[in-house]
Amino acid sequence: MSAITLPPTFPVVGLGAAAICFLQFFQMGVVGSARKAAKVPYPNLYVSDADAKADQNKYKFNCAQRAHGNTLENVPSVIALFGFLSVFHPIVATSAVVVWVFGRVFYTLQYAAGNPAKRNGGVAISHYLGILTLLFGSLYVAVTKSIEVFA
Hints:
The protein is an all-alpha fold. It has one domain (11-150): Membrane associated eicosanoid/glutathione metabolism-like domain (Four Helix Bundle (Hemerythrin (Met), subunit A)), CATH 1.20.120. 75% of the residues lie in helices and 0% in strands. The chain has helices at residues 13-38, 49-54, 56-88, 90-112, 126-150. α1 runs antiparallel to α3 (56-88) and α3 packs antiparallel against α4 (90-112). The longest helix is centred in the middle third of the chain and has 33 residues, at 56-88. It is elongated, with a radius of gyration of 19 Å. The two termini are 16 Å apart. The mean pLDDT is 95.
């Protein structure tokens, strides 16, 4: 049985973890502001299509809520890939997560502005670079380490 020795740069991973938490708090604030502007009472998660079509603030609330929901759907994969890759390449993993968070902030702002078609415009698309780096970095490590073990 072998032990995992963490690289000396491993503490940088805390920055990536904090960035993910920042993103969640940021999105909660965006949704909360949109909820207040649209006067949507708790516990309503969304407003109906008819209400959203009749009131731009309610439509923007739905957009903000969806941006947050989409991020929540992706966070488990991001954290899993980040955790795995960070054991072997903490700086690469942290950089990728920070890029993902940066992109998701702009994704959220653009989506919450009420034009979902533009949610991946401009720098918002960088969230794909972040998650693809985590995915392919993790695959690379898994394959190369598996070859070492089974060779």
